[in-house]
Amino acid sequence: MRLAFTLFLLALAAFYTWTAFIDLAPLTANGRLGPGFFPRVIGVALVVTLLYSIVIDRRFGLTSGEESAYARDIVIFTGLLVLFVAALHVLGGLLAMVAFMYAALTIFNRRRHLQNILVSVLLPTGIFLLFNTWLNAGIPEGILAFL
Amino acid sequence: MELLSDLWLGMSVAVTPANLFFLFIGALVGIVVGVFPGLGPSAGIAILLPITFGMDRISAVVMLAAIYYAAMYGATLTSILLNVPGASAVVASTFDGYPLAKQGRAGPALVMQAAASFVGGTVGVILITLLAPVFSRVARSFGPPEFFMLVMMGLLALVVMVGANWRYGVISALLGFGLATVGVDLVTGAQRYTFGSAQLIGGIDFIPIAIGLFGIGELLYSLHIGVHRSASGVIAYRSEDRFWPTAVDWLESRWTFVRSSVLGFVVGIIPGAGATIASLMAYSVEKSVSKTPERFGKGAMQGLVAPETANNAASAGAMIPLLTLGIPGSASTAVLLGAFLLWGLRPGPLLMTQNPEFAWGLIASMYLGNMMLVALCIFAIPLFVAMLRVPYRILAPIVGVLAVIGTFTVNDSIVETWLMLVAGVVGYFMKRFGFSPAALVVALVLGPLAEDTLRQSLTISRGSFAIFYERPVSLTLGIVTIVLFVLMSFMRRFQRSAGTEPGEPGEDITPKSAV
After folding, report:
1. pLDDT digits over B399-458, tens only?
2. Contact in structure between B325 and B139 (CB atoms under 8 Å)
3. What global pTM score does this model have?
4. CA B152, CA B448: separation in Å to the nearest integer?
5. In chain A, which among 15-74 make CB contacts under 8 A with chain B?
6. CA B243, B304, B331, A50: dihedral to nearest 10 degrees?
C-alpha cells in the first residue's frame, strides 16, 4: 500500500515535471527567470527524491505500511462524505447535512436511535443557522428552494 | 518606555467587549479542540477559519490565535485523566500526570497543569513582548537572498523533525511547493498548471488543502486506529477528591516553572522543533536536576509541571518567527499565517511598524487569553470531563459536516469542496505512511515567497548563486541553517530515545492510541 501511494505520487511528480519542461519557459525573453524555472527545479527534485525513497523503502522492506482493522469504516465514511458533497446542491446544505449525519450515526453509533435522530437534526440546524443566518454565508438551498 | 506605550496600544485594541468575547470563544474552542482526540489546533483553526469571515479582522485573528495556544491547555486533560495524550506535545505529560490521577490526585494535577500552562504561556508572551521588536528591527535589513535563506532554513528544520524520516519530509515539502506554483505567474503573467480551468487561474487556495489535510485526514486516521470503536475510557477523576494542590506541590515546582519556561520558549523559536521537543527536553532536564529522580514516572508533580510549562512557552516562542519574519515553524502557525494573509495582514519585519494596532493587539490579547484559560481550566473542569464522555463516533460526523460546509462557504465553491475531500484522503495516506502534511502546508504557504525571493535574488546578482554566500547576513543564515540541521538531527534522536513516535511538529495532534 505504501508502495502504491509512493508510485501514485511519482506519477503525479512525473507529469508535473514533464509539463514544466514542455509548457513552461525557464527564462524570459530578457534572460531573467521565467515561469518554468521553479517548477523544473521542484519537479526534478521531487522525482529524484521519490525514486530514491522507493529504492530505500524496498531495501528495508517498507512497502506495505501498517494495516488497519477498520479499513471498512474508513471506506464507508469516505463514501458518505463523497455522497454528502455530491448532494449539497441537489438536496441543499441543510438536508444534505441531516442525511449525512443520520447515515453516519446509524452506521457508527448503532442502537441509539433517539440520540442519532436528535443529533442529526439539531446539530445541522445549528450549523445552518450559524453559517446562513449569523455569518450570511450562502449554503445551497437545493430542493428547499422549491418549497 | 516605547515598549510600554506599544503594549498599552495593544491593550486598548484588545480590551473591547467584542474582542474579549471572541477571545473567550477562541479560548473555549481551543480547549475543546485540544480535548478531543483526532482534532488539533491546525484542524481547529482551519475548520473554524470560515466562521471568522463575518467578523472584524482583529477579533478574527485574536480568536484564531486563542484557539492555537488554548489547544495546548485542553490536550493535557486527556493525558492526565485517560493516559491518552491529546497531542504529541503533551505525551510527556502522561508520564506523571496519569499516575497522579490514579493516586486520587487528579484535581491537584489538573490545577497544576493549568498553572504551569499559564506560567509557560505568560512568560512566553512577556518574552515575545521584549524580543519581537528586536527581531523585527534586525529583519528589516533583510533582502530577498536573506528571506530565501530563511524560508529554506524553516523548511529544512521542519523536514528533519517531522514525518517518519527526512525523505518523506522533503517529498511533502516539495509537493507543497508544487501546489503553490499552480495559477498565474505574477511576474510574467503565464498560466501554470491551470489546464484551461478558470477555477485554477487564481491558484490553489490553502484553506481547502489545510481543512482536508488536517480535518478530514486526521479524522480518517483516527478511524484507522480505531478511536471510534473504543469506549470513552475510564476517566480518573472524582469530584470528591481533594482538589487544590498542596504547598509542597508549589514549593517543589517553583524552579521547574522558571527553567521550563525559558527552555520551552527558546526551543519554540526554532522552526520545526516546537512544543513536542520542548516538553520532552524540559521533562528530561527536570529529571536530571531532581534530587529524587526515582519519583519521576510515578506521579512526581515536577514531571507534570515541566512539560506543561515548556509546551506552552514553546507555542508562544513559535509566534516570534511567525510575526517578525513571516516564517511559520509548524502546521498550526502555517494555518495562522494563511489566516493573517486572508485578512490582508502580512506578518514580517514591517508588521510591527505598519500594523502596530494588530501586532500589539494580538500580543496583548495573549496576556488576557492566558488569564482566561487558567480560570477556564480550573473552574470548568467538570464541563470538560463531561465533554470527554462524548464518543468519537458522534464527534467524527460533526467534524465531517464542519469541514465540508466550512470549505464550501469560503468561496461558495463546490470545486474547492471536492479539492478539500481529495486533500483529506491524500492527508490520511500521508499520515498513515509517515509523510508530513505539516511540511506540505508550510511549503504551500511559503512557496510564493520562496519563488519570488529566489527570482529577485538572481535578478540582483544577474544569475549568480554567489549572492547567497557573499552577503554577510545571508552567509550567516546559511551557517545557522547548517548548525540547526546538526542540532535538529540530535534533537530528533533525543525525541526517539525519549520513546515518542515522530509526529507532526509542536502542537499537532497525534493520537497515540485508542481511548
Report:
1. 899 899 988 888 888 989 999 999 999 999 998 988 888 889 888 988 888 999 999 998
2. yes
3. 0.83
4. 13
5. 16, 19, 23-25, 28, 31-39, 42-43, 45-46, 49-50, 52-53, 56, 65-66, 68-71, 73-74
6. -140
